[in-house]
């Protein structure tokens, strides 16, 4: 399991599968080095891989490091796939991102729409890198028999998420800023965009369960969306967080800053029908758990 020390990786490692899990860290194997990845797979006699590692972050990090978003994520994925193909008898689940989808994709978005247009400009370098891995995996499957599946989790959140300013996505960023505003007595919280942007939010524990389901034989060669099936606006998220935190101030929307894609929600029906995927944690319960963890762990 690559990215085992990351936000999603820790939940992936906690899923009971009946088989031992080996979680790689960058200090143990450099995923940017193909020889290192090949050596690690040979030494560990790895038969199944969940590739969840990546250089990821919020809108700010995407704008600051478009080159690394493209090159690091592409190289890591290519090395894992090529090493798995060389190893033989090695199955790979590629954990992707909603950023692969075109900015003007229909909502909710189906898996078949991935190559119907260009991704949102703000996250396009990350999205194109992850999109390319699907094409590479299919090529390696046809030529070398690589067994793979490709999962696209929607926006994930939950305890243990990245709350640092440069790495945080919408939910942890909002929680951090609202909590700080409450504690410092600020009368407003400024949020990027106009609040109308919508997202499909999935609790990280539900996502981890769904990703493990993609190791099944019936998932081979398939692309799956993992989502809640519900669309929530950034304004709704922010207002709910203010309520749960107990913040009495106002929300101010900075429309001079980018808010990301106008709408983003996935159609999870394929994963539900073929894999039996069914999210269990709703948005309010998930936010309560996340806020409680953040307040306790600071």
TrEMBL record:
Catalytic activity: GDP-beta-L-fucose + NADP(+) = GDP-4-dehydro-alpha-D-rhamnose + NADPH + H(+)
Residues that bind substrate: 177, 192, 199
Alphabetized GO MF terms: GDP-L-fucose synthase activity; isomerase activity; NADP+ binding
A Gene Ontology BP annotation from the UniProt entry: 'de novo' GDP-L-fucose biosynthetic process
Pathway the protein contributes to: Nucleotide-sugar biosynthesis; GDP-L-fucose biosynthesis via de novo pathway; GDP-L-fucose from GDP-alpha-D-mannose: step 2/2
Enzyme class: oxidoreductase
Active site, renumbered: 126
Binding-site list for NADP(+): 3-9, 130, 153-156, 169
Keyword NADP (UniProt): yes
Keyword Cell inner membrane applies: no
Keywords noted in UniProt: Isomerase, Multifunctional enzyme, NADP, Oxidoreductase
Domain NAD-dependent epimerase/dehydratase: residue ranges: 1-227
Job description of the protein: Catalyzes the two-step NADP-dependent conversion of GDP-4-dehydro-6-deoxy-D-mannose to GDP-fucose, involving an epimerase and a reductase reaction.
PANTHER family: GDP-L-FUCOSE SYNTHASE (PTHR43238)
Annotated HAMAP family: GDP_fucose_synth
Name used for this protein in its record: GDP-L-fucose synthase
Originating organism: Candidatus Nitrosymbiomonas proteolyticus
Gene that this sequence comes from: fcl
